[in-house]
Design goal:
Blueprint lengths: L1 H48 L1 E13 L5 E4 L4 E9 H10 L3 E5 L6 E6 L1 E3 L6 E5 L2 E19 L9 E3 L3 E2 L3 E7 H6 L2 E5 L10 E10 L9 E3 L2 E6 L1 E3 L3 H59 L1
Parallel strand pairs: 1-4, 8-12
Antiparallel strand pairs: 1-3, 2-8, 3-7, 4-6, 5-8, 8-11, 9-16, 10-15, 11-14, 12-13, 13-15
Length: about 300
């Protein structure tokens, strides 16, 4: 009996020790996880609140009446350096929900130096624009129509082939720019690239260019900017066909000339006969009149 109770006590003691060890293990693991989680949270908070600087390229908007004026001299894109909290900078970099612009509402034709401005950034964001200013020229807007001229090398076709007249999707173009630039335009050309030894029609899409009298490109907006062009190429007629055609035409001309001479001769003969008849009639009338006079005298 004593042996039985002594064994149960031993089992109970071992179970108690194991339970204490298990409790200690679980408690230690929980504390470790809490510390790690706390450390990660602090690190995340620190990362979000840390300062970050980045530079991005932003297009420039113009605040001006574009239907009345043309502006030149400014950069279409500028570099903006942003400084602020990491979270805000990351958001701005991804969304770019702000703009850089030139305020030209109170400017007329002329040359000016104007500062770039920013709209859409909060007070917590510092920025720097590079370049900070733009040297611009404002001019009155003008639009004019021009006939399109086509330029191509006729020597690029194969021997025995000839080029026809160019066909295009449009024959006129609208040029828009400052009045001075529009007045400089001498012609608007479309260059057609013809391959060497060409024997087939050439189909191409060519970019239009406005040129001055010296052949320099004038900086204006062309509408349309490019057109579709077709350049027909066909075989030339042989010399024998041309000779036969000329001979037939010559024979036809000779026959026509002979007919005209014959008609003329016939007309002359008819005219002579008519004259003779008139003469005869006149003589008859004279004779009759003479006889009447004589009768009356008698």
């Amino acid at each position: 009996m004593k042996k039985f109770f002594s064994q149960n006590f031993l089992y109970r003691l071992v179970a108690l020790v194991l339970a204490i060890l298990l409790f200690a293990y679980v408690k230690t693991d929980h504390l470790t996880s809490t510390r790690v989680a706390g450390t990660d949270s602090n690190q995340n908070k620190t990362a979000l609140m840390s300062t970050k600087t980045t530079t991005i390229s932003v297009p420039v908007d113009l605040d001006i009446n574009t239907s009345k004026y043309v502006t030149s001299g400014y950069q279409e894109n500028v570099k903006v350096t942003l400084t602020g909290s990491s979270a805000l900078i990351t958001t701005l970099t991804n969304t770019r929900n702000f703009k850089v612009y030139l305020d030209l509402q109170n400017y007329g034709p002329g040359k000016y130096t104007v500062k770039y401005k920013v709209d859409g950034l909060g007070k917590d964001i510092k920025y720097k624009i590079n370049p900070a200013t733009a040297k611009i020229t404002i001019a009155r807007r003008k639009t004019k129509s021009f006939e399109i001229r086509y330029r191509y090398d006729t020597n690029m076709v194969k021997s025995g082939y000839v080029m026809g007249n160019v066909k295009s999707s449009t024959t006129t173009v609208q040029a828009t720019g400052s009045a001075d630039d529009i007045n400089r335009i001498s012609q608007v050309v479309a260059d057609v690239n013809v391959p060497s030894n060409a024997t087939k029609d050439v189909y191409a899409r060519t970019v239009l260019q406005a040129l001055d009298t010296n052949g320099n490109i004038v900086n204006v907006v062309l509408t349309p900017q490019s057109i579709n062009v077709t350049l027909p190429i066909s075989k030339a007629e042989s010399n024998s066909k041309k000779s036969d055609s000329s001979s037939n035409q010559s024979s036809s001309d000779s026959s026509s000339s002979s007919n005209e001479n014959s008609d003329s001769t016939s007309k002359d003969a008819t005219s002579s006969a008519s004259v003779a008849d008139d003469s005869s009639s006149s003589n008859s009338s004279s004779s009759s009149s003479s006889s009447t006079d004589e009768t009356q005298a008698n």
